[in-house]
Every structure is written in C-alpha cells, then in structure tokens.
C-alpha cells in the first residue's frame, strides 16, 4: 500500500450551539486505506463524515482532500461531492427511478456522461455489487440489503477518490448485513479508500487498516484492529468494547 495522504483533518473543531461536537480532530486517511470509526452514539462520528464532503461546515481547523482545502461553493463543491462518495444508513435511493436510473443519474447530470456510457458503467458496477439482474426494478421491489448495494454502486458510479460509509448496515435485517459487508470487503481489497462508521466489529477486524475510536467529539484512540481489539489502551474504549462485544 502507498501512504499518500488523501484526506487530512487538522485541528478540526465544530459546534452545534453550545455543543462542542468535534474537538481538535486530527486524522489522516491514506490512499487505499480503510479506516473504521467506532464509538458510542452521539460521539460525533456522523458529523465527522459529513464535514469531509462539506455537508457540514467546520468552525476551525482545516480539511484537505488530495492536498487541496475543501472548496466552499460552486463547481468546485459539486466536484468535491463526486470525489467523496457517501453511503448512508437509510439508502436514500430515488423511489420513482429504477435501480439503473438511480446509478446513472449522477454520472449523466453531474459528470455529463452520455447515457450509453453511463449505463454500461452502471451495469458493470451493479454486477460488481451482485445485483445486475435487478437493474430494471424499483427500490421498493428490493430487499434492504439489495437497496444498500445499489447505493454503493451509485457512489462508485461517480468514480470517487474516497467513500464514506455511515453505519451502512444498521438499518438492515440481520440476514442482510453480511451481503453488504461482503461487497464492502471486496471494495477494500480492490484498494478503494474508505472511511467506515460501523458497529460491525468482525468487518473492522477483517477489513480495516486502522480503527479510530471516538468519544465525546474526540479521537480517543487510533490503532491497528488487532491492537485495538485485544489491547485497548483507554478506559473509554475498554468500556465501550465490553458493552458491544458481550451483548
Ligand atoms: N444538526 C445538528 N444540530 C444540533 N445537534 C446535532 C446536529 N447533528 C448532530 N447533533 C448532535 O451532535 C452530537 C454528535 O452527533 P453525531 O455526529 O450524529 O454522533 P454519532 O454519529 O456518533 O452518533 C449529538 O449529540 C447530536 O445530537
Ligand atoms: Mg451517526
């Protein structure tokens, strides 16, 4: 693996009113790296993700993508949104569009790809997430796991530099979690740069290069999965792990 910094956060602070939701965050995600972010509910994980594609602004500090500060507006911001893919807990597919149309929309509208090219690429990606045979269906005709795989194909269709996953399996029935994690594991193996907020510790152990543990808006601990899970250093991480690993 190379160690070219792709996403860099330096002394990032953010408040929601009186709530200091990100406290002096320093984090580097290298190209090709998979960083899993874990931590208690309310610790700022989603906010952290959202600042990286500027769905949220920050109060101080700096975020850089590929050595460039995040753009604030205009075409550069649109470009940023295609460079930084996002997969949410709640799939967010367009209900009145087919699976294929959901995946081709961004490339045609934002990247100005011709329909034929966008559709050919979309079909490749739908095959890659193992759902090519559902291309003409509507989201409501698919299971949650299938819909989330469409959302992943849709993110990939923009040829992003990095994909942020915010609890991508939390809304799924248990039997559908694995098919989504398998697709994400494949992406990781293929060298996609990924930031993944998840409670799936098996995935973290298997796929992560690094685990970042957040609590109360701070990065409390950052380590290899092996070290983190067998030997958490902080009391907060020990406490968190004992709660989620024993239920
Ligand atoms: N838009 C918002 N306005 C006000 N408070 C928010 C907003 N979004 C999140 N928060 C608060 O910020 C804190 C961190 O939220 P979040 O980033 O969603 O945490 P996590 O994803 O780790 O559960 C929580 O206390 C949450 O209630
Ligand atoms: Mg969250």
From TrEMBL:
<dbReference type="GO" id="GO:0005886">
    <property type="term" value="C:plasma membrane"/>
</dbReference>
<keyword id="KW-0067">ATP-binding</keyword>
<dbReference type="InterPro" id="IPR030679">
    <property type="entry name" value="ABC_ATPase_HisP-typ"/>
</dbReference>
<keyword id="KW-1003">Cell membrane</keyword>
<keyword id="KW-0029">Amino-acid transport</keyword>
<comment type="similarity">
    <text>Belongs to the ABC transporter superfamily.</text>
</comment>
<dbReference type="GO" id="GO:0015426">
    <property type="term" value="F:ATPase-coupled polar amino acid-transporter activity"/>
</dbReference>
<keyword id="KW-0547">Nucleotide-binding</keyword>
<dbReference type="InterPro" id="IPR027417">
    <property type="entry name" value="P-loop_NTPase"/>
</dbReference>
<dbReference type="InterPro" id="IPR050086">
    <property type="entry name" value="MetN_ABC_transporter-like"/>
</dbReference>
<dbReference type="InterPro" id="IPR003439">
    <property type="entry name" value="ABC_transporter-like_ATP-bd"/>
</dbReference>
<dbReference type="GO" id="GO:0005524">
    <property type="term" value="F:ATP binding"/>
</dbReference>
<feature type="domain" description="ABC transporter">
    <location>
        <begin position="7"/>
        <end position="241"/>
    </location>
</feature>
<dbReference type="Pfam" id="PF00005">
    <property type="entry name" value="ABC_tran"/>
</dbReference>
<dbReference type="GO" id="GO:0016887">
    <property type="term" value="F:ATP hydrolysis activity"/>
</dbReference>
<keyword id="KW-0472">Membrane</keyword>
<keyword id="KW-0813">Transport</keyword>
<dbReference type="InterPro" id="IPR003593">
    <property type="entry name" value="AAA+_ATPase"/>
</dbReference>
<protein>
    <recommendedName>
        <fullName>ABC-type polar-amino-acid transporter</fullName>
        <ecNumber>7.4.2.1</ecNumber>
    </recommendedName>
</protein>
<dbReference type="InterPro" id="IPR017871">
    <property type="entry name" value="ABC_transporter-like_CS"/>
</dbReference>
């Amino acid at each position: 693996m190379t160690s070219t910094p792709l996403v860099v956060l330096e002394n990032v602070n953010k408040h929601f009113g009186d709530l200091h939701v990100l406290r002096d965050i320093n984090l580097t995600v290298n190209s090709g790296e998979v960083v899993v972010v874990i931590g208690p509910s309310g610790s700022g994980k989603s906010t952290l993700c959202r600042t990286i594609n500027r769905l949220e602004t920050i109060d101080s500090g700096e975020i850089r993508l590929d050595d460039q500060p995040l753009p604030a507006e205009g075409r550069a911001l649109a470009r940023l949104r295609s460079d930084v893919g996002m997969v949410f807990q709640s799939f967010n597919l367009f209900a009145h569009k087919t699976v294929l149309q959901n995946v081709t929309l961004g490339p045609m509208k934002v990247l100005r790809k011709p329909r034929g090219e966008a559709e050919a690429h979309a079909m490749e990606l739908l095959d890659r997430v193992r759902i090519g045979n559902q291309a003409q269906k509507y989201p409501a005709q698919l299971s949650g796991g299938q819909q989330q795989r469409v959302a992943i194909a849709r993110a990939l269709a923009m040829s992003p530099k990095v994909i942020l996953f915010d609890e991508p399996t939390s809304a799924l029935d248990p039997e559908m979690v694995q098919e989504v994690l398998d697709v994400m594991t494949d992406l990781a193996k293929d060298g996609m740069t990924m930031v993944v907020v998840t409670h799936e510790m098996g995935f973290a152990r298997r796929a992560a290069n690094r685990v970042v543990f957040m609590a109360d808006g701070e990065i409390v601990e950052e380590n290899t999965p092996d070290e983190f899970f067998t030997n958490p250093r902080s009391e907060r991480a020990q406490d968190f792990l004992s709660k989620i690993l024993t239920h």
